[in-house]
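Example 3.
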Amino acid sequence: MLARHREGPAFVLAALLFLAVGGLLPVALSLWDIAGDPAQGMGALTSGILWGRFATSLLICLYTLAIMVPLGMLQAWFLVRTDLPLRHILLAIAPIPFFIPPLVHVLTWFRIVPLEGTAAVVLVYILSYQPLALLMAARSMEQTGRDEIDALVLQGGRLLVFLHDMRGAFPSAMIGGILALVFILSDFAVVDFLTSIGPKVTVYADTLYSHHLGGRGAAVAAASLPGLVLCMLLLAWALRLRRAIGQTTGAHHVTPRPLALGRWSIPAVLLLFVLILPGSVVPLASLAWQTGSTTVLVEEFMVARHRLLFSILIAAAGATVMVLVAIPLAHLARLMRRPWILDTLVMLPFAAPALLFGIGLIRVWNHPVIDHIYTSFWIVVIAVAARYLAFVYLPYSGGLDRLDPCHEEAAQLEGAGPLRRFLHVVRPMLGRTLIAAWCVAFCLTLRELDTLVMLRAGQQSLTFHLYSNVVFAREDQVAAIALILLMVTMAPLFLFLLVTGRRARLV
Amino acid sequence: MSKHSTIFFAPILALMLLVGCGGGQREEVVLYTSLNEPTARAVIDAFEEETGIRVIIQADTERDKTVGLVRTLIEERNRPRADVFWNSETANTVRLKSEGVLERLDPPPANAATVPPEFVDPDGTWWGFAGRARVLIVNTEMVAEEDFPTSIWDLHDEKWRGQAAIVRPVTGTTLTHMTTLYEMLGEEEADAFIQGVLDNECPLPPGNGRVARLVGEGALPFGMTDCSDYRLVLNEGFPVTAVYPDQDGIGTLLIPNTVARIAGGPNPENARKLIDFLLSERAEEILAFHQRGHIPLKPGINRPEDVANPAEMNLMEVDFDRVGLAVADRLEALDARFP
């Protein structure tokens, strides 16, 4: 197949090259620092402080996951399986909290409720990352066919369907939880801010930054290992599980009829409002209130308009590169006997701490031959595309797994090459998945800071502008910048809903 | 659906092709600065206007604990991309000098001669300008004037248990301040100061700006911060005042901004011009009248009334070179001591 049509291998090789040079090599080069000073690395790795803070971070993660995973599954069940009023609107706004940087959640909620302490940290993380569990669980539940649901209803009514859905969606919701764990492990700002008064809590990421600030490269690399290894092991496990789940779905899927909630409709919709609105509508309302007037909003827009345009371009270009790279990689994975290996490699740049990845990027790209790229817009595109590639690759490869291979085989027998098969067979069926994944990638790129701060071009972004002003500017100005960022972040989500006219399916 | 994806992706691809094209031949200089960009921009705009040289700024954010730039400079050492390093304090400048990232400017820029000698690197690699004092910010509605703290040792006072804030001293000016205490007072006395902070359960906010805001908002009665952060909160109308601590004792710490040229940077002559401008009276005046109110080091420079004059203060006598070289080890020790 590949021998007769050269474009297929060419795309795959280009995608592999991008993954290797843009994503894997930077991480590898940063980790190589351990070899430069093994004693320093070993000292960092055996430090009781490191493991104490790692345990603190894990405890925060466990509290967060213990609440967000069941909550996400519960919401997913109501939104996917029932005739809950307004469920399409609720499903559309459910992802919003994930695209709001956690520190912005803190800043918005801080004005309403005086948040402090570890419980507040867990609350903010639940608000921020709950959509990951919700969307993963929702997607899993959508795979159950009408016949199966009808049989369960006959056997045991809604309760049996509920229990069956919870059991089936748990692994997917846990994948969302593990993705949340990756984000939480690399964050120190939320904890630092929310323990300003009272007992101070320091976390795993604090140790990484402390070594970083002290210029101890081997210690940074070595201290990154516990988090990196844990994240990769969990992700590898979850991704294997995910592929197994994907393969159980039949090709001729019929969407089940929604279960009637009857008199429970109003309590259920109120419950979901309580669970979804605090993370999505409240931050927007709070920022609008803090901004105070449209004059401030317009002034800040005028000041930040070039950065806004830059951020939009970076996010659009980054998301597009992710789509272009993810497609051939997903098709390659489909041909592999152990596709989870490729899945795991794609996850590595995301699982690595941002500063480790940023240092590696400088080492890879600061060379005379590729001089123009290092100081340009494109280094930022490469950085974000490599880091968040998994967020396009995973949904697309998941969709590909569920496609009936007979369509592609028929096209192949007619002599269609990989590109034509993609354009005429796969794309019509997975186009919506790709657009949804593009939207997710766009939003994630817009909120990215940690990698971009290491790169000169990245500092033209709106996120950088927001964090530059967060301590120094007036509160109404900061709120206005955050509001502009959020409105831009949400634009593609709403555009997507407008274009497709159907329910959002973002993961 | 295929129509949707074509409509969706085609304009984006076209836009991507357009981006990255263009760019003129205008003279430029690349500045890496640990200041937040809005503050640096006030001076840089004046430089651009005066010389016509475009300044490309790479700045840091408080969120990143201002560590990004120093590491970037070290990583780029073999192929420097920056021309000038403008640091908001001294320690990392000394560290970069010891790493060979900075170079001696010979002959020194013209305005270097006007910098007070205590803020000049003895080897002629960096110069100080426009400083920030370490102050105690006090909420005037929570603390009566007769109870105002006057010394950093007031952080230990039992009556302020759990209420007198200091930034966890592992970054920025607080780290420099604590390292200076160790250099000036010796291990035992400085250790006692740190232990007192821990024993008195001082709140440890994430940055000096946060300390100032918490005091301004009345969440805490007082805390240790930079005078620039105090001034921001004051200008927002919060009931605060600043006490320059230990005027009858070891003195107040004044930490200058520092500037140096990057060894092997791409635009050495423009770097010299920018450094000369930053050391000028005009730059200090701009920073003094900026909302953050940096303190001019040179005598006789116009300043707002509430911006202090170093000539009228008892300042700590600091060997910034020694402090800078000690910072990395001190950071490791302090990180281990604080929770």
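Chain B is about 40% helix and 15% strand. Chain B has two domains: 28-131+256-308, 132-253+332-337.
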